[in-house]
Specification:
The complex is a heterodimer of chains A (about 160) and B (about 200). With about 160 residues, chain A is mainly beta. In chain A, about 10% of the residues lie in helices and about 50% in strands. Chain A contains two helices and ten strands; from the N terminus they run ααββββββββββ. In chain A, a hairpin with a 4-residue loop joins strand 9 and strand 10. With about 200 residues, chain B is α+β, with helices and mostly antiparallel strands. Helix content of chain B is about 40%, strand content about 25%. In chain B, the strands form two sheets. An eight-stranded mixed sheet of chain B has the order 1-10-9-4-5-6-2-3. In chain B, strands 7-8 form a two-stranded antiparallel sheet. In chain B, about 40% of the residues are buried. Classes of the chains: A mainly beta (about 160), B alpha+beta (about 200). At the A-B interface, strand 2, strand 4, strand 5 and strand 8 of A face helix 2, helix 4 and strand 8 of B.
Chain lengths: ~160, ~200
């Protein structure tokens, strides 16, 4: 093959480009991930983040070594009653940031194996599937924010 | 001389204020809230008898002299309850002087089986050291929820459960009369504005 005859430098450049190109097949980026701190003996808490997929995908599951059960829940309000239900997957339309925050979808960490303290990092493993059924796992280190932290950085934003 | 007069006037003024407090808040006439709902004609939560996290029995009369804002939740709730708690902490910060001292946040747990007094205490105090939490037996909690017309139900989640529940906060005046309800979607600033309206007549 021609490639094998090319100078090493060009070969490396090609490899680097492949390296860039490969994950781009189904790339999902995670931003602003955080976990809410817990108090001693509290058994569950929540994880929040923004996901952006570059092709139509869905978030299938989340795992973490600090919780026995991790589920994605959807919060909804009917009148003044807030309800939670587990969802099987969260749709991630191409290019559209999807926010998992306290007012909608969020990750429930249940059966905590330890207290989650502010300033720590919580490892999360996200499993994402693209439209062709190819699965990708993403490792995220989510910093722990105080128990009273609000969604996002904008404190005025409540609606 | 002028100093003395002023001081006398202040003392007299304080006496009148004291009488005002004893006599309770002025009638709700003209009480107009901008964001919350005027509940002056409703009777809710008059008879509850629960325990605080130190094991002391608490009723509505335990809060006479302060303005309790009572709402329901549970500590295993990752989304709505911390938002409501954080909003309550923010409301307290927005209130000034006497208003802040009057404001008493009370969380009643809907999950007494899992929310031990220790967890409850650490939880509410993580938001603000002045906050109080109340608990009871599951039967007592069911009774109190009924009294407040609060809906709640356990929803299975994995091998455990979460709880769907009403998210409205109820505010009483210093004499234990229900005055105001605040919905979950209101901001801390909106709630604080309505609370100041109420505090002005009390």
């Amino acid at each position: 093959m021609a490639v094998s005859l090319q100078p090493i430098k060009r070969g490396l450049a090609a490899l680097a480009m492949m390296g860039l190109a490969l994950p781009a097949l189904a790339q999902t980026t995670v931003s602003d991930a955080w976990v809410r701190a817990s108090v001693p003996h509290q058994q569950s808490t929540g994880a929040f983040m923004t996901l952006t997929a570059d092709s139509d995908s869905k978030l299938l599951s989340v795992a973490s070594p600090i919780a026995k059960t991790v589920q994605v829940h959807e919060m909804s309000m009917k009148g003044d009653v807030m309800s939670m239900r587990e969802v099987k997957a969260v749709e991630l339309p191409a290019g559209k940031p999807v926010t998992l925050d306290p007012n909608g979808y969020h990750v429930m960490l249940m059966g905590l194996t330890q207290q989650v303290k502010e300033g720590e990092q919580v490892p999360l493993t996200l499993t994402i599937e693209d439209a062709k059924g190819a699965r990708q796992t993403l490792e995220v280190q989510a910093p722990v924010r105080p128990l009273g932290a609000e969604a996002g950085h904008d404190h005025a934003h409540m609606h | 001389m002028t100093d003395l007069l002023t001081r006398r006037a202040v003392v007299a003024g304080m006496g009148v204020l004291g009488l005002g407090l004893l006599a309770g808040c002025n009638p709700a006439r003209g009480l107009e809230f901008k964001y919350g709902k005027n509940m002056s004609n409703e009777i809710l939560g008059r008879k509850f008898r629960l325990k605080d996290t130190q094991g002391n029995e608490r009723t509505l009369s335990s809060f006479y002299g302060s303005m309790p804002m009572i709402f329901f939740g549970f500590t295993q709730c990752p989304a709505v309850c911390p938002t409501a708690m954080a909003r309550a902490a923010q409301i307290r910060k927005l209130l000034r002087g006497r208003d802040r001292d009057l404001f008493q946040v009370v969380l009643i747990t809907l999950d007494p089986e899992r929310d031990t007094p220790e967890v409850l205490d650490a939880y509410v105090k993580a938001f603000d050291p002045s906050f109080t939490a109340l608990t009871g037996t599951p039967e007592e909690i069911a009774e109190v929820a009924k009294e407040f017309r609060v809906f709640y139900e356990k929803v299975p989640a994995g091998d455990t459960y979460t709880i769907s529940h009403s998210s409205t906060s109820y505010v009483y005046d210093t004499r234990g009369t229900l005055r105001l309800s605040l919905g979950h979607s209101l901001t801390a600033k909106e709630c604080a504005e309505d609370l100041v309206t109420l505090m002005e007549i009390c």
